[in-house]
């Protein structure tokens, strides 16, 4: 079984993926971690690397290829990434969302930033990613038609979200 979980920064994708991975006892990969590693290898911050990637389609294309290849070679896997559902043949495609202020609070808490900085960085990053995804792949990140399940994580903790996903898996 292949599951993709996508969402914008602070929507809960990483934590939900980790919880679901444990509950299903299957591995996961994170496109965000791959992207962060690529930024570190270039000695850039995440924001700097996002801006750099705007003018370098090869970065996003490489990320997409890596995810698709890993998924094809796997029997059971959860792939966490904003565009994973578009490039991976998955049994279930999930999108997590939450209001900007909630996502900013989560980013603020995990990265020890002020709320203002968290909102500013999220907004810059999302604008950058939206432009790249549209330009490189003709994908509108705000179009949820490809997803089987869309969950607003505002009122649910990661265990609850994982249970919603598990319940969905029982009926598909």
UniProtKB/TrEMBL annotation:
<keyword id="KW-0963">Cytoplasm</keyword>
<dbReference type="GO" id="GO:0006220">
    <property type="term" value="P:pyrimidine nucleotide metabolic process"/>
</dbReference>
<protein>
    <recommendedName>
        <fullName>Cytidylate kinase</fullName>
        <ecNumber>2.7.4.25</ecNumber>
    </recommendedName>
</protein>
<dbReference type="InterPro" id="IPR027417">
    <property type="entry name" value="P-loop_NTPase"/>
</dbReference>
<dbReference type="InterPro" id="IPR011994">
    <property type="entry name" value="Cytidylate_kinase_dom"/>
</dbReference>
<keyword id="KW-0808">Transferase</keyword>
<dbReference type="GO" id="GO:0036430">
    <property type="term" value="F:CMP kinase activity"/>
</dbReference>
<dbReference type="GO" id="GO:0005524">
    <property type="term" value="F:ATP binding"/>
</dbReference>
<dbReference type="GO" id="GO:0005737">
    <property type="term" value="C:cytoplasm"/>
</dbReference>
<dbReference type="InterPro" id="IPR011892">
    <property type="entry name" value="Cyt_kin_arch"/>
</dbReference>
<dbReference type="Pfam" id="PF13189">
    <property type="entry name" value="Cytidylate_kin2"/>
</dbReference>
<keyword id="KW-0067">ATP-binding</keyword>
<dbReference type="GO" id="GO:0036431">
    <property type="term" value="F:dCMP kinase activity"/>
</dbReference>
<keyword id="KW-0418">Kinase</keyword>
<keyword id="KW-0547">Nucleotide-binding</keyword>
<comment type="similarity">
    <text>Belongs to the cytidylate kinase family. Type 2 subfamily.</text>
</comment>
<feature type="binding site">
    <location>
        <begin position="7"/>
        <end position="15"/>
    </location>
    <ligand>
        <name>ATP</name>
    </ligand>
</feature>
